[in-house]
Amino acid sequence: MRPRQAAMLAPAAAVFAVLFVAPFAFLFVVSFWRVKTFKLRPDFTFDNYADTFTKYLEPLVFTMAIGFAIATLTTALAFAFAYVIRFKAGRHGNALLVVTLVTLFGGYLVKIYAWKTILGTEGILNSALLALGLVREPLTIFIYNPGAVVVTLTHFLLPLAVLPIYGSLRGVRDITLEAARDLGARPARVFLDVVLPQCLPGVTAAFAFCFLIAAGDYVTPRYVGGPYTSMIGNFIEGQFSLKFDWPSGAAMAFTMLGACLACVAVSRALLGLARPR
Amino acid sequence: MAADAKRPDGGRTPLVQLRGLTKSFGPVVAVRPLDLDIYAGDFFALLGPSGCGKTTLLRMIGGFTEPSGGTIAIDGVDVTRLGPEKRPTNMVFQGYGLFPHMTVRQNIGYGLRLARVAVAERAGRVERIMDLVRIAELAERRPDALSGGQAQRVALARALVMEPRVLLLDEPLAALDLKLRKQMQEELRRIHRQIGGTFVFVTHDQGEAMGLANRIAVMEAGSCVQEGGPEEIYRQPKTRFVSSFIGEANVLAGERRAGVVTLGAGAGFAEAGADGTVSVVVRPEDVRLDPGADAEIRLDGRLEDVVFLGPYTRYRVVLDSGEEVVVHAGDAAGQAVGERVAVGWRRDRQRLVQGS
Question: Which domains does chain B possess?
């Protein structure tokens, strides 16, 4: 590498090293330590990992499952949306894209409170149902359950998933679709054989992105998930902030990271089946 | 040019029949109602300047653009409302449209896979077609690792392997450089001879149309203005547009009164026909400098420019009327630029077209 290029890389590399690599490495080491009377004691024990699997296996599995559900739902919706923008909307496509980007400006917490306002017992949805006379008293099924978490996070993640998928769909040339039809492919085959394989990198990226953000979230479940919808992130947060048990928290965090990467790898492999043979 | 004006198949029914075919995009008429017959074995060119509707016409034959009116029949079957996947046609697209995620072999075999051709037969046919277009050594490459000429051959192979009743080619050589273009022209002629199919191609390059096709339809502003063999179109252009679009032509304005044509540049001759403005079209190679006694038409002017081009010399003469006449002559004459010269030609070498 030339000195000039090294100089250009240096600032970002420094930030990355100080703010990511160093704390990451430190927490990894800490995950093998113990804590005694609220003080960290260096050690080399796997107890923290063992505890994670015995005490927190259920929230871990639940987190992976809900992350998977959110990522699948979001990617599917985003794909449909991006597909319409790219192939069907014509010159209105750009307007739709701008709308998508604008929703990104609404912050994360704003969206959570918005959904609280919509789904709550005295929320917009219940008010509407009462006003229409469809129910006699407010329904409690909308909020404080995993469903509310799925709805909220899907809404939040949708624009973030639309962008990479749209980006990869833009690289799909119309002429390749025409060529496939010319060779005898019906619309479904054109989609499976030509569109999907060409935009797979974007779809995979969107899916991984949504999965990692959804699985790592602990704010949404706290506000709309109710007392029985705790994701692993909530427990990890508790270890650090309430119990001051950094080693356990770190072990849980690394376990979750491993589980997430495994899930993403499996998803990629599954999507990879769409490649031509 | 041997088979030029002759129909390759006598009186048989045409393979492709277009009847009253038309296409409008909103208020814009891309193709005016048009009739065209293409016969089995034809190498047929749709020739015209950009925007004349030739590509729209080709896309209608392929099923990619729905006609606003009229019918398309292939092999006697009306295919007007069928999509491209149901037509016995295959297209070589201008931008090739190769599938970037498949190897060359997968690209070529894709259509056969869709048609559920057995694996062994499919492999054999792909192999044979790759040999025919000479790309066997590229089989495992991906399209992004191909040069323009190679991609062109793969696109051709992918369409040909389907053994279409009609092969459609949209500006097949436009993206190639001159040398490659000449080479591909020869290849296309060889392939057409070898498999004996029916090829229809679109081009704006008259040299390409003359060099490849045995039939040419010249299009202008959405209409087919003349259809015929290359020699017929070159020798007997029906309109001034055709004469100047195909090869170089001198066009001189004139007027016909009671069967006598008088050119603005001076000369006159008798030729029966309706009164009104006419144009005389004559090819540069048919015009002589210092014409002999056999030249019925003679005009005077000043030699403006002389360019030696190898096989012939190009003279540009400005007539006293201000019109220009270009002369191609094999033997270098002694005239110098600026001298007064006479040009002339035999009457059987010129063409008279109505209007200006």
Answer: 16-238 (3.40.50.300), 248-354 (2.40.50.100)
